[in-house]
Structures
1.
Amino acid sequence: MPKQNAPTVVGRGLGGELRQLRKAKGLTGAAVSAQLGWQASRLSRMETGQQGIPPEDVASLLVIYGVIGDERKRLLAMSERGKDRGWWETYGSGLTPWSRTFIRFETEAIRITSWQPMLVPGLLQVPDYTKAIMRACDVPDADAQIRVAARLGRQAILSRDEPPELHVIVDESALRRVLGGPRVMVRQLRHLVEAAERPNVTLSVLPFGVGGHIGVDGPFVILDFVRDPAVVHLEHRMSSLFLEEPSQVDAFRRSADKLAKMALSPARSVEFVARIATEHERE
């Protein structure tokens, strides 16, 4: 059973958004706390998701930060679900609330395990490949530009001084599905090979020859943190699901382990990707 005071995905997401709003206003935690008559540690615990944030406290903070309208309603709704374990978000277009939360978790993670049966994972995509995905999914141009820029921005975590460990498991179909044309695929696959040379990146390929496997259910990402509980992220076209119950996370971790064991070794995976890149080059 998880501890009752363990931070939830909703609480961590809300706290992170409030922290960003405060910093965008150029305010320190001490200044905001003083204005509200709070101890500085109280706001710090709220922003890190260690303490629940009642709607009335969120409302007070939003007044200071000048947040009104639909954004205010959304953040207040999050505070009302602050103790809920697990988080389902639906969305329309552009850079969505759940994507901001996912990007924040990705930044804080020390280990990221990604299974992708159809596409190259976002952290390892080249811009033209990402644009081709947006076009194929009928994403409006304005929203697509925002999403492409955000996806490129996410990749900066792999180049920082202490990057997270990234284990990418991809199906052969993701390597053979041509998005953006053969030239784009060649660049994309060679980028995968280059990324796999990083000491913090492991690439595993699941070839067609393995037949049926547990990953046919769909893609998932497991994010591990230094102190906070691990989170599983499941993405759909019009919604996103975050799972945080230990039993749920363990189930996906076992799936990732099974997929990794069925996949080619990292060295053979790199050779396999390079060979498919050469095949695309001849098309």
2.
Amino acid sequence: MVASGETRPGVGEARNEFALERYRYILQQIHAVNENAYRFLAIYQTLATTLVGAALALFVGYRKWEVEPAIARGGVVGLLILTTVAAAFTVILILVGALAWLDYRNEECDITDEIVGQGFRERPRPGNLLRWYETYILLFILVSMIIMWVLAGVFLLPSMK
């Protein structure tokens, strides 16, 4: 038996080994979260290109296909709404990923503070938001959606008579 106040042999080693494995897992999760943002952007770009392409095809071909202008306008608007839904879903996934990244980074800092020493790793700061690529991905999605709706409202829909 171990007297109170004493530690069992190997407990410190096991604790450090567990902390190292947890640290590796956290770094792996941070890497996965970073990669997911690019996957979500690729999915959005693919869906947006396809849906907007379909809207443009409808705009170009509705007369030839003998589709009523009101129905064609409705189809264009419907396709733009689907694109907006895809954009909103992508934005939500990226925001959730950013929150997960913050959580993992804080856990990383907790482990390094305890095992290596206080302040070994700086915690993420909101001021660094302009350095995060997710910020620019979200801005790209927002700007592309605004441009899409403005162009459709100014050029496509009014000319479908």
3.
Amino acid sequence: MPDAVLCPRCRMLFAGAHPFPMPGTGLGEGYACAWYRGEVRHAVLAWKDHRDEECDGPFSATMTALTAGLVPVFGRPRSPVAVVPAPSSPSSLYRRGRWQTLTLARAVAEALRRHGVGAAVAPILTMRHVRDRAVQLHGGQRSGRVHGRILAEHAERCPGTDAIVVDDIVTTGSTMRQCVEALNGSGVRVLTCLALAYTPQSDRTTP
């Protein structure tokens, strides 16, 4: 639509709170705003890989709404909560020119603060020595790609002992699980994981 970054119909596609399994977290599951298919996939990839940074605003608003709806589910976390953006490989950061999940993490932290939960962004996860582009890999390859390569550095700088991990796309969940394991292993308890979009199991064979 003219003068619209995302039309109202596309915005509504991101208005959900779809649960997905996430072992090792306090809630046992994570939540995504949308299913990763069709217009959602097109919009997220345009934002992520093709510098459509105008979507920063709508996607931040989407993550804000998701977080606000889940605040009652979180219970009473040990405040403040560390909002941890999922890491990207150095080559991906260089290619994109930015750390796009950091934008989403800031929106989540702000939403938590608005609802009385102390929160701060804590970019303490790093990914090392990953060269293959994840979009070209199937589930087993993705798991091998990131296994043991996501590290929690400077966990002592976390603003608290509870965390929420934030990513853009969850396909097999291998990256999120590695993030959870790295943080838990550093003494930071992960409450849940949040994402813009999640690939349902039935869609995972779709190119």
